[in-house]
Amino acid sequence: MAKLFLQTHDAVFADRPRTAAGKYTAYDCTDITWSPYGAYWRQARKMCAAELFSARRLESLEHIRHEEMRALLHDLHGDGAAGRAVQLRDHLSMAALGVISRMVLGKKYVEKQQAGAAGAAVAATTTTPEEFKWMLEELFVLNGVLNIGDFIPWLDWLDLQGYIRRMKKVNRLIHRFLDRVLDEHDERRRLEGDGFVARDMVDALLQLADDPNLDVQLTRNGVKGITQDLVTGGADTSTVTVEWAMSEVLKNPAILAKATAELDAVVGRGRLVTEDDIPHLPYVDAIMKETMRMHPVVPLLVPRLSREDASVAGYDVPAGTRVLVSTWAIGRDPSVWDSPEEFRPERFVGSGIDVKGRDFQLLPFGSGRRMCPGYSLGLKVIQLALANLLHAFSWSLTDGVAAGELSMEEVFGLTTPRKIPLLAVVKPRLPDHLYAGP
């Protein structure tokens, strides 16, 4: 059924419903996720493919991903050397925010702030990790809720669940943050004049917005909406996936040992994992895919909307019908997967099943026209982080927690993070000089 809606009848079901989330958290549906199917969306999608996520641009920014990965390993090494247990999510989210903010925004706008004059100067141009993480988490929760007013419009004004009030609050904070980002980019463009060269994705978007030949004019709010998609989509999703992957391998020590053996054989213990190593690590790749099967970042794909009457599998579906695809249910369907509740990466080794929207039993990024446009970047960040964590450290659960007792409860929103953040003991397993940081 997913294939029928997302591929066979993709063009008919390529629209989006107009929801409170799109209106209040996505600049009145001017981002990529919630914008209706039409000339504006096609133009935004084209910008992503040609300018923002092209192989050339991703390759040119590879050094950022490696620098932030070294910073992550350096921070974890300090905790490991002291024998401390770490809350992995905090470290992962800072690394992901570092990668995404530098690639998209041009610098780290999220910094741990210090006291004193220097700290005050940093605070003037950055947001604290706590503030930013709250904004991201709130956005993902509110984009995944079932808001009564979206389904019963005449009740919308009552805001019975309080969701619209929360949407307006988080939007004000993000609006202020992105205004500051765009103002700084505009100022640099003004100062550099004709010698201006785009350094990051916001620069590229602002240049495109100035193009008089665009089919649909890209407004400042449109730039902010697309930027918000890039930042939120890239940061939280990779953190959630890697935390689940590490949870599963800690729960299954034999899988952890097998992954470590593959990394030692391919990479050795004299260097860190690079992106060039990833194609030669089929078992680590299988761990990622199995994680995405059992813990899809987006359990219900963003709703589709039919643009016209259609007939699907013998059912008459009228125009204006919403379609929800449950990737969570497909990933745990016993008619599709053997022993679906077991974490078995081996099922993907040599299977040929991919995550790029062509195999409908595994759709972490969706499929068809409305598939996540940034999946290629997401895969790079997830694979590099997971491989380096498994390679650079020995991992174990804290004293008193047996592998079989590790809680795997999840929180439902647009994404499904762990309910209880993973706490693990980390010990360095490579030479000390490799943890020196960027």
TrEMBL record:
Any GO molecular function: heme binding
Bilayer-spanning residue ranges: none
Binding site for heme: C372
Needed cofactors: heme
Pfam families: p450
The keyword Cell membrane belongs to this UniProt entry's keyword annotation: no
Protein name in UniProt: Cytochrome P450
Key words of the record: Heme, Iron, Membrane, Metal-binding, Monooxygenase, Oxidoreductase, Transmembrane, Transmembrane helix
PROSITE patterns according to UniProt: CYTOCHROME_P450
Keyword match Phosphoprotein: no
Entry's family note: Belongs to the cytochrome P450 family.
